[in-house]
Design brief:
The protein is α+β, with helices and mostly antiparallel strands. It has one domain: CBS-domain (Roll), CATH 3.10.580. The protein is built from 6 helices and 4 strands.
Length: 145
């Protein structure tokens, strides 16, 4: 039987709501040593906020982190997986979307998070290396802009 996202996902997620401030989100990221947070409302995924979103859409534009709302900074077209999808599906999605972390959504509700690091702790091989290469292409592209 093929391993599913449910087998490796983290159920202990830290999330924010759209009306929370960038400052609250940044503090949570710092406290939990994470770089992205699902944005939820009523348990439903509304978007994803990254540390980069805070820097590029708030701080670099001179906005105040203690008054700018997460809902104004988050990405709303968020890739996600379901708990029933295979780990292979998650790796493929991460590579194609060039992300390291995906929300896990079950029946519209955020059920967990899965990261490339979660997968790499359990698996290794060419598929992980390929996903990292695709993600790194995006990262290096941002460094040269």
């Amino acid at each position: 039987m093929e391993e599913t996202v449910r087998d490796i996902m983290s159920k202990n997620i830290v999330a924010v709501m759209p009306n929370d401030t960038a400052e609250v989100a940044a503090k949570l990221m710092s406290d939990y040593d994470i770089g992205s947070l699902p944005v939820i409302s009523g348990g439903h995924l509304k978007g994803l906020l990254t540390d980069r979103d805070i820097v590029t859409r708030c701080i670099s534009e001179g906005k105040s982190a203690n008054s700018t709302k997460v809902g104004d900074l988050m990405s709303t077209n968020v890739a996600f997986v379901t708990p029933e999808q295979s780990v292979h599906d998650a790796i493929s999605m991460m590579a194609s979307e060039r992300v390291r972390r995906l929300p896990v959504v079950k029946e519209g509700f955020v059920d967990g998070m899965v990261s490339l690091a979660d997968i790499a702790r359990i698996h290794s091989g060419p598929e992980i290396a390929s996903a990292l290469t695709e993600i790194s292409k995006m990262d290096s592209g941002h460094l040269h802009k």
